[in-house]
């Protein structure tokens, strides 16, 4: 027996066992269940019934599509807004100024705060009796809580987007700041000496340099906001609901058909997220080759 | 945006330049101040709500303060009775908030310990060696960080119930579904990847030759681990542990589904409070919930750089 050859498999074994059994096993089990495979009750043929039902024929099919649309909108808007804000803030914070350390710390403050808490924070801030409504009331901008616009538990997911922007700006920020730090400002100094103005330097030098890192962070954030449950549960409405919330509602429904639909919908979420990741890996591999 | 340094020294029409620079400086500071205020606004809202007393609309900053909400959660004895003995007596009765806090802390600690124990050898293999199938192993470990819990927790939920039936058939009275043990086990799924990725980064910069030297000097494997390996990887181990704890600490959906509403951790309590509409109680629970997170940020902020996988851990919290 050659023990040396077994060394690496033995070192990896426990970790891979945990991930395979608990994660990939559950994913695979969810997949076969969503395909109607239930040997206990004699169903051994695979069908797409649950998928067809959740997307087209079921009572809640309309909910699914409006939910998918809302999910894409929220994930896209949150990713774009927080990336843009983070780039702006990181560029400002790169200068040396009084209070820089404190600003950078506050910039990172939301990073370790759980999404659940940020979502609740948005309720306390943006609801009609929240902190900002009080502020507007004290300034006399609005005459009562009802005049304050509905920004949480609204149909367009504004509260959800706000929560993600608060949270993910810090996430993007730390990545962008690290990239900027490792680049230094030599490239921009060269561009400046060649006569480029501030906007030209940003557009043609800084942005292309931070773009690869920004793109990979964007994929992570988009995938996360696409599949996250807590924030839309707290800040969303009954209709339309984001896909993760809708999925759990289906699954917890006592009706067994609804449960299969929940399984199908969870697999759809997984497939969309995985497709995004593969797309990203393909795109980034191609750009690296071109360079 | 670093043009201030070279142009300021050229001194052409110095007065106009100075006025322009001063205006720009004021705008810069105002922008920074505004952004900082916006970023901390949620935390300010928590403090106002948690300590305010008779805080009526449209009052912005509370004029009266109290610990009412803290009393209501049985975390603090009523006014006039706040002696150490009363505090201890109150906490020994284990009010809901204390029991949730305790459960969250202990699950977090156990999950951190187990994940490091399991993940350390794997991280070493990934950081130090090249082998066939390494890319596949890395892919398998990274995937759970990208696929959201909602996608695998439904299947896991049913699997746990099936395994419980199988265990009962085998005469083992262990319930995974609806138990603290089951919840701690599933927390390993989101936690393990960050532990392995953080530690494999540590091992990538680790020189295993020192172990060979210690061995040639006659040290046994246990001695080598504690005298050579352990001190070298300790900082990385510390960071990995903090992130592991934080990821477990903030889990809601997995605890909810696998715990079947019977394992009441702090996020579970906070979630049900969020539906109650009592903002003061919600704010108190939120403050307790973010306290360790902010502490960890203070301790670990110097380890935060964009390329470290630890940041990914923060992103998922």
Describe the structure.
The complex is a heterodimer of chains A (291) and B (317). Chain A has 291 residues and is mainly α. Chain A folds into 2 domains: 72-232, MetI-like (MetI-like fold, Orthogonal Bundle); 242-291. Helix content of chain A is 75%, strand content 0%. Chain A is built from 12 helices and no strands. Chain A is globular. The two termini of chain A are 47 Å apart. The mean pLDDT of chain A is 85. A two-stranded antiparallel ribbon of chain B has the order 1-2. Chain B has 317 residues and is mostly helical. Chain B has 14 helices and 2 strands. The two termini of chain B are 33 Å apart. Chain B has 2 domains: 4-66, no CATH class; 95-316, MetI-like (MetI-like fold, Orthogonal Bundle), CATH 1.10.3720. The relative contact order of chain B is 0.11. Classes of the chains: A mainly alpha (291), B mainly alpha (317). At the A-B interface, α1, α3, α4, α5 and α6 of A face α2, α5, α6, α7 and α8 of B.
In spatial order, strands of the major sheet of chain B run 1-2
Order of helices and strands of chain A: HHHHHHHHHHHH
Report the sheet-strand fraction of chain A. Answer: under 5%
Strand count, sense and barrel status of the largest sheet of chain B are: 2 strands, antiparallel
Question: Keywords for this structure?
Answer:
heterodimer, A: 291 residues, mainly alpha, MetI-like fold, 2 domains, 12 helices, globular, B: 317 residues, two-stranded antiparallel sheet, 1% strand
